[in-house]
Amino acid sequence: MPTPVLAVLASGFGWHISDLLRAAEKVGVALEICPFPEVSARVGGDRPRVTAGAIDLEGLNGLLVRMMPPGSLEQVVFRMDAIHRVAAAGVPVWNPPRAIEAAVDKYLALALLASRGLAVPETWAGQGADEALRTFEELGSDVVVKPLFGSEGRGILRVSDRELAWRTFHAIERLGSVIYLQRVIRHPGHDLRVFVLQGRVLAAMRRFATGGEWRTNASLGGRTEAATLDPAVKSLALAAAEAVGTEVAGVDLVEDLDRGELVVLEVNAVPGWKAISGTTGVDVAARILAGLRDQGR
Asked: Does 31 score more than 90 pLDDT?
């Protein structure tokens, strides 16, 4: 039987790519690394294919989308069009393009979660600074401002001062960006990252903010510990991943002490696993590649 060939669409060669190459040998697959800027496509003629350099993406056993790098609107739309076409050719794509489109957009992802009846933070998104300032006051004058597209806690700002809120909202408005506000959640000082793979919880960890940092992201220095989840928490994480349509997901949950329940903060469709693998001992990269390999057989 020929060796299955998988590819990773990536934006660089960092720790996660190195870990995937290590895991590829372990699970017996050939792994091609394809930078997003090399993606091109032909329509009509005798070679209508989507390629990345010399790699025929439509001839693979599976394609893993590791990261969607920044780009112009045209570039991002074209990349997603190409991924849709690869999936339409019958190649398993993780995550599916619709899931990537939903999860990368914090507003859309949160709306999908809420439509399933899942608890989410009270959130407002809009384009006008004046309305944002009124909403800031309605939300208790203590909000988290997030970029609509973003990950790993980058670009997030907590604002509890009206003057700073005014300046922040008008700056975002001038940039032509969306203003995205969430009421600050009073929590016990930690949250949960649950790694979901193909409808099952693969691993989970608690993340604690340290050194005066209010964000818990491990990439920002947060302390982590392995977590054992009760059935209700597992069900919540799985329902969140399913709502966004993911095969692979990092689901972030936090206890809202005022509401007395867990809320879903985010579903990440291109989740990192360096911290959760190191914390739990689970070989996440190997499990991802093995699952993608088996689906493509």
From this structure: yes
3.10.20.90, 3.40.50.150, 3.40.50.20, 3.10.50.40: CATH of 5-96+289-295: 3.40.50.20
CA 98, CA 84: separation in Å to the nearest integer? 8
Structural element, H or E, at residue 223: strand 223-226
DSSP label of 61: S
Tell me how far apart the alpha carbons of residues 246 and 231 are, in angstroms, rounded to a whole number: 20
CATH of domain 186-282: 3.30.470.20
Dist. CA 110–CA 146, nearest whole Å: 13
What's the pLDDT at 221?
58
Q: Is 15 helix (H, G, I), strand (E, B) or coil?
A: helix
Task: Give me the sheet containing 93-94, strands edge to edge.
Answer: 30-35, 5-10, 62-65, 93-94
pLDDT at 166 over 90: yes
Please provide residue 83's backbone torsions phi and psi, each rounded to the nearest 5 degrees.
Answer: -65, -40
Domain 123-183, what architecture?
2-Layer Sandwich (3.30)
At residue 220, the pLDDT reads 54
